TrEMBL record:
Positions contributing to S-adenosyl-L-methionine binding: 63, 88, 139
Pathway annotation: tRNA modification; N(7)-methylguanine-tRNA biosynthesis
Database matches in SUPFAM superfamilies: S-adenosyl-L-methionine-dependent methyltransferases
Enzyme Commission code(s) on record: 2.1.1.33
Job description of the protein: Catalyzes the formation of N(7)-methylguanine at position 46 (m7G46) in tRNA.
Stated name of the protein: tRNA (guanine-N(7)-)-methyltransferase
InterPro entries: SAM-dependent_MTases_sf (IPR029063), tRNA_(Gua-N-7)_MeTrfase_Trmb (IPR003358), tRNA_methyltr_TrmB_bact (IPR055361)
Amino acid sequence: MRLTKEFRDQFIQHEMRTHGRKNGFVTTGQEARLLHWLPLIGLPKEKTLADANIPAGSPVVMEIGFGNGDFLVHLAQNHPDWTLIGVEIYLPGVAKAVGRLEDAGFIERTRITQLPAQFVLEHQVGEASLDGIHINHPDPWPKARHHKRRIIQKDFAELMVTRLKPGGYIKLASDKADLAEWMRDILDATPGLENVAGTGCFVERDEDRPETKFEQRGLRAGRISQFLHYIKRA
């Protein structure tokens, strides 16, 4: 079924301009899980990480655009001391992720927001609050006139740096070569960041990294993903 208008009015911030899908199909069970969990682990626009009951001393790692939650589950499985912040505007994806996190037993270590990443970093995350940021296979917006919609832009990169703790990291992945190079060139030029592979280079795939849905889709189309890893200088 489609998400009901009442549900969308409750959880989608219509006044915030975003690009990409916002509505889609969910099962009755998925909608019920959202209704149960979002009031408990959600980050509505008036709430910040400081209000989110994050355990003292827990590393805080964010995934921007988490899709169906596969990578969030992977992070939770491999880092049991982390608190994960998931950012995703597509509510059916959030519904799938919530179900997977609950089934895996990790839902209470996750905080979820359906707000645009720019708003989240500007208004919900304090300076030097994050230990890491993951961005996996963001929308490539391949047409030149749409490049301004790509998530990695100069101002956004600089904003991410301010939200990272010294020594914190940004990891990115894309199976679109032009987008991977676009992200690399912007982040290589961003003050305060160091490319772990060296300027102009990509890192090898993390050995324990799972193949996400979008990566598998790229492989079926003959595209190989490229990976970037940056550290915020102390």
